[in-house]
Amino acid sequence: ATFMECDVRDHVALDAVFERVVPPQAEATARHAAETTTSTTTSTRPRLRVVVNNAGVGPAGFDDLATNLEVNLGAAARGTRAALDAFRRQDESLAATRSSSSSSSSSSGEAAAPRGGLVVNVASLAALVPAPHMPVYAAAKSGVVAMVRSLHRTALRDHGVGVYALCPSFADTDLVAAHLRRGDLDDETPSRAADDADADEATRRR
Length: 206
What we know:
Blueprint: H1 11-21, H2 25-37, E1 50-53, H3 65-103, E2 117-122, H4 135-159, E3 161-166, H5 174-182, H6 189-205
Parallel strand pairs: 1-2, 2-3
Helix pairs in contact: 1-3, 2-3, 3-4
């Protein structure tokens, strides 16, 4: 796994992260031509298989609405779009490589190269149950879940890419600790969130 860090509010920087992993088609074609000359194919390079969009800022009030939506929802949307584009470029490059190899080889019956991959967007339990202590954060994370539900079927059908949301509860992180110190959250917040989730699940099963 490779961790790639950037300011997700910078659209150019975010796109550049994905282009470093899967170059634009013109660059990929030129690189493949150079590698073919030295008897090395693109199959020797690691394939992009899973993208995890994990940008986020902690719970905030209405005064931080723009930042919260920009990072917690906007970055997930742009990261998902960039990931889908990267998987598409990769599939096109692999298909071109395979076609080139097939035309210069008499072998047949080879299995098709795997297509697509996975995009995982880290949302939150707050997207699934009421979160009165952080309504703006919950709204942003709910948007991530709605985006994933809307995209999943078509992305899988058109690109072979599964788009998913991960909705964790609270964890012992520096971010949560900072909000505990500021008073945005309290020691009972995690247990209340878990109780709300249990109650919500019980209601759905009735």
